[in-house]
Amino acid sequence: MSKRLVNNLLFLAIPLVFCTILVLTSWLLVRSWWVELLSFFVPVILVLTVLLLIVGIRVRPGRWHMAAVLLAVLATVKPGRATLVFNRTAPDAPHDLSVMSFNAALFNPYRSYTLESDPHLLDEFYQYLRTTPSPDVLCIQEFYHSGLEENTMTADSIVKLGGYTSFYTNPRYDEDFQGVVGVMTFSTLPMVGRGRLVFGQDDVYNGHWVDIASGADTVRVFNLQLRSMSIRWHRDRGLWDNLTDIYQRLLRGYEAREVELAAIERYLRASPYPVIVCADINALPYSITYRRLRMLFENAFEQKGRGLGFTYRDFPWFVRIDNQFFSPSLEATHFEVLPDIAISDHYPILAHYRLRNGSVQPK
Q1: Which residues pair with 36 in a beta bridge?
Q2: I need a labelling partner for 75 at 20 to 30 A (CA). Which of 116, 190, 199, 304 fits?
């Protein structure tokens, strides 16, 4: 293979393909399942683009080749800012409201196999509440409250240990787990309003909103979990069977997510107060889901996070699917992922906000 052919492939064709994918997944809002599929390749493309730039600087293949590489590098700016940030953040910075969002996985990361919560993991979370100042608002997805007398009453314990004065939940009794499953929001501040979110056709993925009064301000906090695409690679299946399964799951998941997002966006736009969205969106920062929410609101990680902000601790490990979005009329002063609380397949995320008087719609 000639040197010219290698240069054309490595420094012209590949960078242009990378650039096209990055533009489709991060710069344009193309609503299609295949664009959602392409978004899963963005982390790899970001790394490979940087490597291409380094190799190109050393090899110096030619002016047009380097122009193609630089074009691809330019396309990484927007997805790069959603991936890696270097903000100044301090937990002791002045703030009016602290908010934690946490997919607790029913307090059992292996719930699919054991069908019960783990009392030891519950004790670890209770110890955190005993020894750490409780966030003003605690939003839990995949919350579990046992209906069995011999098990710890989760909601009661969190209220007592966290010093919470009010809570709200979307209860759904699960026969397999013999308990209440859903999203639940706790608050040390008065809840002056609340309501359910009705979206999609699967009550496993649901949510609600609560209006929190803090001094002269009121903020509406949304707590929700969106449908997972549930993409898995089965080692006991062949290549074609796996690809077919992924295609079907992605297509069904995308269609269901479109219905969910349309309903959720209506709720968000209808809020008379500034908004904080605590959500396990089950989607990457390059997905259509993330970008539609990002068009309405700021993202706490992007504004005040540091590093990569990964929130999922099982395979594939390198994803950020738990988020806090907020109205631009608010100000984030701190954001962090809490990897020391390893009692779920998700890590909790904590953000601090400054509030301002007045009712402001999403941007």
Answers
A1: none
A2: 304
Helix 119-131 / helix 154-162 crossing angle, nearest 10 deg: 20
Q: Are 146 and 152 in contact (CB under 8 A)?
A: yes
Taking alpha carbons only, the member of 157, 147, 152, 206 closest to residue 177 is: 147
Element (DSSP H or E) covering residue 18: helix 14-22
State pLDDT tens for residues 113-145: 665 666 778 888 999 999 999 999 999 999 988
Residue 56 dihedral angles phi and psi, to the nearest 5°: -60, -40
| Residue 337 contacts residue 347 (beta carbons within 8 Å) | yes
Residue in 295, 304, 301 with CA at minimum distance from that of residue 327: 295
pTM, entire model: 0.91
Residue range 88-354 forms a domain whose CATH class is alpha beta
Q: 327-360 burial string, b = 16+ CB within 10 Å, else e?
A: bebbbbbbbbbeeebebbbbbbbbbbbebeeeeb
Amino acid at 91: P
345 — phi, psi (to 5°)?
Answer: -85, 5
Q: pLDDT tens across 248-294, in order?
A: 887 888 888 888 999 999 999 999 999 999 999 988 999 999 999 99
CA-nearest of 265, 217, 211, 225 to 101 is 225
Report the alpha-carbon distance of residue 190 to residue 215 in Å, rounded. Answer: 10
| 292: phi then psi, degrees, rounded to nearest 5 | -70, -40
Is residue 263 packed enough to be buried (19+ CB in 10 Å), middle (13-18) or exposed (0-12)?
A: middle
**Within 10 A of 58 (CB to CB), how many other CB atoms are there?**
7
Take residue 208 and report the two structure tokens written for it. Answer: 């609600």
Structure tokens at 319: 């994803």
Phi, psi of 223 (to 5 degrees): -125, 115
Contacts 24+ apart (CB under 8 A), 52-57: 52/10, 52/11, 52/14, 52/15, 52/18, 55/10, 56/11
CATH 3.60.10.10 domain locations along the chain: 88-354
* Sign of the dihedral defined by the CA atoms of residues 87, 282, 327, 102, in that order: negative
